[in-house]
Amino acid sequence: MLKRWIVVAMMSWLVVGFLAPQKAVACSCVDMSVEKRYEVFDTVFLGTVLERSVIKGDNVFEVERIWKGELPNGSVNTNDAAGCGTATFEVGQQYVVYAEFLLGEMKTSVCSGNKTAVAASEDIAILNQISEHIVDPKTEQTSSDRTMYIVLGAIVLGSFVILLVRMRIHKHK
After folding, report:
1. Which of 19, 51, 78, 110 has the fewest CB atoms within 10 Å, measured from its CB?
2. Cα(33)–Cα(21) distance, integer angstroms
3. What CA–CA distance (Å, rounded) separates 56 from 108?
4. Residue 20 CB: number of other CB atoms within 10 A?
5. In a domain? residue 73
6. Does 27 reside within a domain?
7. Mean pLDDT of 123-133
8. Which residues cross the membrane (predicted)?
């Protein structure tokens, strides 16, 4: 008799457990540091949204700074393949965007850590520190390229000055 009550109690508990409303989370984002996002994502950039297609999920950016990777056509897709939600961008707003190359295109989502430039001042400072080569998309020169040209120019100018001084010394002898 006791066994029968135990079985009935357990069955009741299971039925109530399955029928009771429960909270379900469809997706949760992993909290990552800026350094970890820089490591994980293929492209990290600062850009202003020029065009936005809600249906196709494409966002075209004018890229101001690239810390990592490249964005050849300036387009990032926000259609969410993982089901976590679509990243929402507003035309005219400037964003720090973390994107990855998936299924033949650059993609980002609500979990990527994208922020408006105003809200991303800390991210920008950290990205400036950890990126070795900041690419200016207008000139496509890295900061190390510019430094190399300056050093090379200084060497050529210094060599020219030394040559002129030597020529003057030999002329006076």
Report:
1. 19
2. 35
3. 13
4. 7
5. yes
6. no
7. 85
8. 147-165
